[in-house]
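Lecture 7, part B: from sequences to assemblies.

Below are the input chains for today's worked example.
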Amino acid sequence: MNKNHTARLRRTGIAATGALALLALSACSAADTGSDDKTVSLHTPTWVGAEVNTAVAKYLLENELDYKVETKQMDETPAWDDMSQGKIDAILEDWGHPKEVKRYVEGNKTIVSAGELGVTGHIGWFVPKYVADKNPDITDYKNLNKYADLFKTPESGDKGQFIKGDPSYVSHDNALIKNLDLNYKPIEAGAEATHLAQLEQLYKNKKPFLTYWWTPQWMNATMDLVEVKLPEYKEGCDKDAKKIECAYPDVPLQKWMNADFAKEGGDAAEFLKNFNWSTDDQNLVAKYVAKDKMTPEKAAEKWVKENKSTWEQWIPKK
Amino acid sequence: MSATTAEKAAAKGGSADTGSGAEDERQGTTPRGPLPVTWLVLLGLALLLPTSALLWSGGWPDSLGVDAVTPLDSFADWVIENRQTHPLFLYFLLHISNVATDSVDGVHNLLESLGWAGVLGIAAALAWYVAGAGRKGLKTAGIAVGALAAIGLVDLWSPAMETLALMVVAVTAAAVLGTLLGLAAGLSDTAQRLLRPVLDTMQVLPSFAYLLPLVLIFGTGTPSALITTVIYAVPPMVRLTSLGLRGGAPAVLEASRSLGSTPWQRLWTARLPLARKEMLLGLNQTIMMALSMVVIAAVVGAGGLGESIYSALKSRDFGQGLVAGLAIVLIAVWLDRTTAAAGERSGAATGRWAAGIAAMVGAVALALGQILSRSWPESWTVDVTAPLNSAMEWVVNNFYQDVPVLGGTSAWAGNLTTWVLAPLNDGLQALPWWSVMLLAASLAWLVGTWRGAVTAVLALACIGMLGIWGPSMYTLSQVLVAVAIALLLGFALGILAARVGWAEKLLRPVFDTMQTLPQFIYLIPVVQLFNAGRVAAVTAAAVYALPAVVRITTQGLKNVAPATLEASRSLGATTWQQIRQVQWPLARPALLVAVNQGVVLVLAVVVIGGLVGGGGLGFDVVKGLTASELGTGLTAGVGIVCLGLMLDKLTQPSAARKPQ
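Predicted structure of the full complex, as structure tokens:
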């Protein structure tokens, strides 16, 4: 008798669950990306330099073109994925994502180029100026082995220490060290924030270091670093990632857009395609944020007020 | 955070195990049987290991590997190709995403529309009511008001409401899911057996590892953040619900059965009410776990307090990060005290008048919320980040180097790397795979059972086959050192806290805060003090594990019956003798739990170590997420789980051995 009761209850339970599941299914319609006409969604990247692109674009879109701007802070890879689905309309600074370009731009054609940012990025190996001043010939990679002892740390053991950047950044350092027969051990700093904190600390204490570094970088205003010359970059020399033994190429930084937004985004899309400023402009606003501790909004406002002639050309003509 | 559950279990174990302390004494009087075997095994290992390292090459042979990375990466490609068209997405997964987003948005809109005064008032009324009204409720209500007002005061009201909205939905989902699974585990032994390894994995697998697949499937922002949080927060609810159901007094159940009630009636009228206390503790733990995921949620764009911390990390603004972290702690304190008070009250009637008063306070607050500005007034905020930043700067400047006699943190870090971490890693890397297995198996067998030994060996085999032997040994060497440091410091502080009343009073709030504070906050200071590298990673891990170790140790030592202690004192034992010969042996079970928890917690922050230059598996997990290498990240995550499984067997005397 008890058993029967339980069984019946269980059957009812199963039936109810089934009904609920059906109900959920019957509400079937594919998810909507939910972009309305006057809202633009921009990616806020994880480093200050690129954050200010977004801040300035947001300020102008909101105050000059009457758009509402949503900014989404996240890592780059998820941001590319979001952009392909239209959840983010544009990324304003990209240092090169060959894998994603292949997947979304050439592959399912959900992302298109929005032109260049106007800033040219350069990646390389750098040492502090106080090291280069003392050892002038250190700026050629051929002499690096001679100085391996100088860069020795407990972490790198009997080799010189090479400090790597954030794991998501373009880098061939491991291959370069191996292929150029350098007596160095690449050490992961883990993330950009910790990489910067480490360099700042070493610089402050005048310790020698050799690191992956790039320009534009707002910290170049406070840290004087000198580049170490690597074998010259030639077209195609970086084709096979394992065999690379040449320098990093100069990267004109790119802007990317969701394909539908590029077509139907109206003035906003037009404005973002026109957005183009110099390395100095970007560094200046980045310094406002990182050094002077202004909020990105305040920094953008300050720059916009002082540089009308630059941004006027970005506003689409009516 | 998982510490607290285990701790409470430890406290229970500690008191229940006074019996096994007696067993130890008995062993002491009879000639020790197992001892010669132990020494023989250890001697054998001591001879074998160096020989094997000399004669064979270290590591795992490539020929025994399985490639898991390629299929995982092609799975990612498949998801991206098909998510816009495949029915699985259109009719199922996307609905989950939408429901998640809509419900969090809904709660957030509700909180916004209440206004700050409304939220404050309702939180206070609710806290007062569930704490049993009257004077006792006033204290709980005061904590709620104080915590929320402090958050407003440091200008974090609006991100805090975003976080709160996400937490409300995540905790609700976790509580419902956890109760259902807990019911299954509590009523059926099979379900219990099946769920256990799943729950363990959910807690040890770093969330960074499965964040990317979640993002690909469910999209960024709220859905992924919510699901990650639920995955991490569900286990305690399941465990404690099941524990509560199984622990119901047999007499009550028997009485209920003899009255002819059906199994369902018994469940509703007897077993569930009896399990109420455990279930509320489960809810409390679930909330705490969910709060520890706030920063992880921000990594995929969920906003809130996590984003404040994440962007403070970017601009290396320690003060801003710490303040936002403390805001999370305040939310935790508020919710913890409210739910704990509800648990303690345990069903005592509150009366209708209390409900009336609470409702009235809520209504007045609501009205105030509508009249006053919705967001926290800007003039009522203070900036505390600047002094925090200068304090940190002072510490870094004065301790980094050139400290007279002591040398400074950078020198310590160097010595620890050169003399401990590097040799340990070199040793582990030089050992051939089978001798590492033999070592793990023998140790597991010595402390536990042969079953534990088999599990440890299988876990190591899994690591080898996935092709991550090298990075795993690298990580293992750091984990061992971090656990050793946490235990040394933890035992010392634990003894201190157990003997000296004011020390415990002083340490307790500090440790409570440390456990809830997101680890992202101390990444920058750790790097500034110890330089990026293994020591920074080890320090971050030890700092995270320390509070739990201290607390379990204190608890264990204090649980030793006062009469026993008194007896030893009257026999003229010195303080040190009391600790070493009475408290220490009697508290052994609790201390073993402390060791085990130390291991679990250190493993939980291996990924954080990856962010400060720890390399190894932690770095691979980070890289998997940030560089979109799904295979690399997940494989490394599984590696961490395997290490956890092995170390668990090495540190946890099996339950099967205890009852003799």
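Note for the exam: Chain A has two domains: 39-120+252-312, 121-250. Keep this in mind when comparing with the next example.
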